[in-house]
Amino acid sequence: MSAVENPTVPADALVQVRRVRKSFGVHQVLRDVSLEVQAGTVTVLLGPSGSGKSTLLRCVNHLETIDGGRIVVDGDLIGYRQAGDKIHEMTARQIARQRRGIGMVFQQFNLFPHMTALENIVEAPVGVVGRSRAAARDRARGLLDRVGLVDFADHYPAQLSGGQQQRIAIARALAMEPRVMLFDEPTSALDPELVGDVLDVMKELARDGMTMIVVTHEIGFARSVADQVVFMDGGVVVEAGPPSDVIDNPQRQRTRSFLQSVM
Fold this sequence. Notes:
There is one protein chain. The longest helix is centred in the C-terminal third of the chain and has 16 residues, at 192-207. By secondary structure, the protein is of the alpha/beta class. Helices cover 35% and strands 27% of the residues. The protein has a six-stranded mixed beta sheet, with helices on both faces. A four-stranded antiparallel beta sheet has the order 2-1-4-5, with helices on one face. 41% of the residues are buried. The chain is built from nine helices and twelve strands.
């Protein structure tokens, strides 16, 4: 893949997406998408199904390869290495090492069913990073307390509600001490009465200064927590800015139509 450009990354721009393109077969999902995410801020991606939001999120941690452009996280070119005027995909091991600093929470909780809540959180720090099991268990208990589930450490996923499982999934991602957290519609699989507890944990992370990129349809969350709202449609960024602009005073008719349909 040819290098599109060699961006100069500001020190406070933790994530830079530059002219990213992605197609699945003949269907182009991302069309020259560019955006910046400053350290310690929350960016919310809004848009209809099929707009490219989740694909963009998966490109940030190289769960999806890109066809053009580049993504830089904390100064690191994600998934590729530069060689002259070309960039080449890294090895699986190199990519896995990069992913350690990028936490991801999915729609489905993806917990190991045969492990307790505590064991689910401990697994990656021990198996991937090589942390001692005792240290990993101590940190896991602290994270369980942080998400309000310290009393459920010995419960298995089948014994937990969907909201509780998602909070365990958040704690599991935090156990790797990520530089940025990615959330792909983290409440979409939950019953309505369970959504609030998960959003409360995410709000607390935002207050603590965690850099977050969140794909969601929770407009209230976006309005109250986001520093930046990015509205996407048809694989492009239609409108971006603070919630007071994009949500409360959108400039584009497509943005207005979408918001009217979901609010």
